[in-house]
Amino acid sequence: MFRTYDYIVLISAVIALCFSLYLFMLVDQILGLFMGVWVAVILCFGLYMKLLRIVHFVLYKNLNDEEDANG
User: Fold this and answer.
1) What is the DSSP letter of 39?
2) What CA–CA distance (Å, rounded) separates 37 from 42?
3) Fewest C-beta atoms under 10 Å: which of 18, 20, 46, 67?
4) How far is CA 53 from the centre of its chain?
């Protein structure tokens, strides 16, 4: 069900979350909040790339099916 890409995105988001918690607790709260925003950015980028791959797969499959039916 999960592919390597999904694990990479999830692991990078967890690493960013842990790093932002470290920054928030021990270094600087503002910097920690800034890094916490990157967790959502990483997850949204991963979701966007996954949806883009699905759309391209469906689009190219439909184009190939139409070419086979016509030609």
Assistant:
1) H
2) 9
3) 67
4) 12
